């Protein structure tokens, strides 16, 4: 399928790379940011004429204007979809501006430039079909599946309701934590903070317009924020009361039931950890394939003994620092490198 991307910001560019990796031809147009010459459309009419599917990858606040300027150049054989993080407004806009005539569907890819660069998997997409165009939803679903994505269908409202308490609240809490200095360089942090520290990092890296859109364009976000603030005040209040009365009953964490025996518990943790290791190996394989494609474009061979030697040296040093047997860790990485090379076809 020939794809046209309207809007070549951070997401448009990342989507273009994903399409390219999956072997799709795409072209892009953006009046603001520089599209590389090899995939740049001359102008909007030319982009529309050359594409079977058109992706609206502009900030939500700019969707109406972008769609209005695209509309005169669209044909009924094409399909249009947006990739915005909220769905009620954008899906209504697509329906209003494209109507019965131009097939369209709303989508929200649950990944972005940061998670794609880190080769995080699985890639998931929420698809909000227009009742007017069931076949368009099927076409766009097939396109995303061909990129290796899992596709989940939802109504725009159901999508936005879930996003209000997850996406919007995560950004809200992260903003608050950053505002009180939790994102600063700190001399030490406890393990319980590590997961949220990663969230702060990705929120900081996200485009500025995203925060406003998540909060203001999602019809359920304000209610979710109020609910969270009320819940936090109630906890704050009961902490203050407990401090006064010396009690702590209402603050005790739920009873987790009988603890599993030590061996079982250790094995459960080992299984969970190995599962994480396998997920990490999958990401590493993906990154190896990406490096392989980059080397192919540069005309370099897959096997790079110099790079491997320095990798093994660094990993031995990391093992030493962690109090592990350096030789054993080196053997693990030799196996990892062999698997990575063979995934790259060598
Ligand atoms: C991925 C690459 O290709 C090969 C595999 C490597 C790896 O998996 O880390 C490293 C060097 C190469 O022999 C690369 O060059 O970075």
Automatic annotation (TrEMBL):
Recorded hits in Pfam families, A to Z, give: CM_2 (PF01817), PDH_N (PF02153)
Q: Which residues form the Chorismate mutase domain?
A: 257-346
Presence of the UniProt keyword Kinase in the record: no
SMART domains documented for this protein: CM_2
Record keywords, A-Z: Oxidoreductase
Q: Cross-referenced InterPro entries, in alphabetical order?
A: 6-PGluconate_DH-like_C_sf, Chorismate_II_sf, CM_dom_sf, CM_II_prokaryot, NAD(P)-bd_dom_sf, PDH_N, Preph/Arog_dehydrog, Prephen_DH
Q: What is its EC number?
A: 5.4.99.5
**Tree of life domain:** Bacteria
List residues of the Prephenate/arogenate dehydrogenase domain: 1-273
Q: What is this protein called?
A: chorismate mutase
What organism, scientifically named, is this protein from?
Answer: Geothrix oryzae
Starting at the broadest rank, the lineage of the source organism is: Bacteria, Pseudomonadati, Acidobacteriota, Holophagae, Holophagales
């Amino acid at each position: 399928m020939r794809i046209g991307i309207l809007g070549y910001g951070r997401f448009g560019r990342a989507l273009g790379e994903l399409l390219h990796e999956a072997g799709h031809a795409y072209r892009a147009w953006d009046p603001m940011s520089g599209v590389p010459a090899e995939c740049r459309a001359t102008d909007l009419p030319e982009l529309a004429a050359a594409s079977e599917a058109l992706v609206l990858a502009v900030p939500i606040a700019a969707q109406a204007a972008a769609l209005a300027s695209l509309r005169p150049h669209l044909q009924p054989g094409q399909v249009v979809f947006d990739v915005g993080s909220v769905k009620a407004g954008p899906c209504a806009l697509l329906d209003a501006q494209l109507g019965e005539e131009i097939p369209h569907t709303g989508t929200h890819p649950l990944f972005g430039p940061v998670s794609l660069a880190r080769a995080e998997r699985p890639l998931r997409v929420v698809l909000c079909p227009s009742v007017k165009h069931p076949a368009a939803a099927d076409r766009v679903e097939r396109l995303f599946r061909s990129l290796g994505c899992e596709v989940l269908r939802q109504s725009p409202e159901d999508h936005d309701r879930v996003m209000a308490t997850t996406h919007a609240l995560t950004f809200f809490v992260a903003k608050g934590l950053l505002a009180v200095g939790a994102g600063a360089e700190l001399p030490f942090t406890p393990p319980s903070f590590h997961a949220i520290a990663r969230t702060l990092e990705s929120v900081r890296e996200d485009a500025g317009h995203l925060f406003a859109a998540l909060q203001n364009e999602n019809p359920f976000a304000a209610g979710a924020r109020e609910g969270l603030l009320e819940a936090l005040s109630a906890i704050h209040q009961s902490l203050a009361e407990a401090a006064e009365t010396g009690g702590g009953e209402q603050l005790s964490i739920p009873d987790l039931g009988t603890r599993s025996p030590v061996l079982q518990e250790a094995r459960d943790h080992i299984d969970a950890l190995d599962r994480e290791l396998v997920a990490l190996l999958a990401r590493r394989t993906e990154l190896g394939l990406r490096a392989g494609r980059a080397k192919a474009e540069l005309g370099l061979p897959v096997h790079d003994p110099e790079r491997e030697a320095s990798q093994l040296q660094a990993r031995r040093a990391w093992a030493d620092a962690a109090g592990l047997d350096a030789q054993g860790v080196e053997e693990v990485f030799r196996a990892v490198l062999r698997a990575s090379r063979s995934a790259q076809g060598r």
